[in-house]
Amino acid sequence: MTDLTLTDPRVLRAIELIWKEAEALDDKDYKSWEQMYSDDAHYVVPIDPDTDDFGSSLNLVYDDKRMRRLRVERMLQGYSPSAVAAARTVRVISRFTVRELTDTSVTVRSAQILNAFKRNEFLTLGANLTHTVVLDDEGDDKISLKVIRLVDSEDAVSASGYLL
């Protein structure tokens, strides 16, 4: 296996995209967020913390392009419970480790702490993230898979009012 280092330019491009995604979500810039994903990408929040078979498992979220589009529409409409008085969020993503690195893609694991404020209450969520980023020769890199493994995924989850 090659030396999977964080200083590799391909890895740095992936991390930069992951941070841009976090900023877009905190800014509620859902249209930009949606454009960061490839057409065949999946956005997954599994319940089982150990599964990699998302298609055959029960998930909190298992979105393809169509479902991401519908989710963004709900967030922008203002009529759904998740969009009305949407939480303000700040997320910190760190502890990056490279899982796989090729000339055309990078898979990175990281840790996320998400702080949300809604209706005079704070909520903190922890999650392990896995992003697979497809690298483009023109620099238009895209997320082809994002898996959000919530630390408390097997407990009851309340309506969040934001994307993870």
Describe the structure in your own words.
The chain has 164 residues and is α+β, with helices and mostly antiparallel strands. It has a single domain, classed as Nuclear Transport Factor 2, Chain: A, CATH 3.10.450. The chain is built from 3 helices and 6 strands, in the order ααββαββββ. It has a 6-stranded mixed beta sheet. Strand 5 and strand 6 form a beta hairpin. It is globular and about 45 Å long. The termini are far apart.
Keyword list:
164 residues; Nuclear Transport Factor 2, Chain: A; 40% strand; single chain; 6-stranded mixed sheet; alpha+beta
Give a quick precis of the structure:
The chain is an alpha+beta fold. The chain has helices at 9-26, 30-35, 65-77, and strands at 37-46, 59-63, 88-101, 105-118, 121-134, 142-150. 23% of the residues lie in helices and 40% in strands.
Kindly report the CATH topology.
Nuclear Transport Factor 2, Chain: A
The profile of the biggest β sheet is: 6 strands, mixed
**General form:** globular
What is the assembly state of the chains in this entry? single chain
Q: How do the SSEs run, as a string of H and E?
A: HHEEHEEEE
Number of helices: 3
- Count up the domains: 1
Q: Let me know the average pLDDT.
A: 90
Radius of gyration: 16 Å
Decide which structural class fits the backbone. Answer: alpha+beta
N-to-C CA distance: 32 Å
CATH C-level name: Alpha Beta
User: Architecture, CATH level 2?
Assistant: Roll
Protein name: Aromatic-ring-hydroxylating dioxygenase subunit beta
Organism: Rhodococcus artemisiae
Family: Belongs to the bacterial ring-hydroxylating dioxygenase beta subunit family.
InterPro entries: NTF2-like_dom_sf, Rng_hydr_dOase-bsu
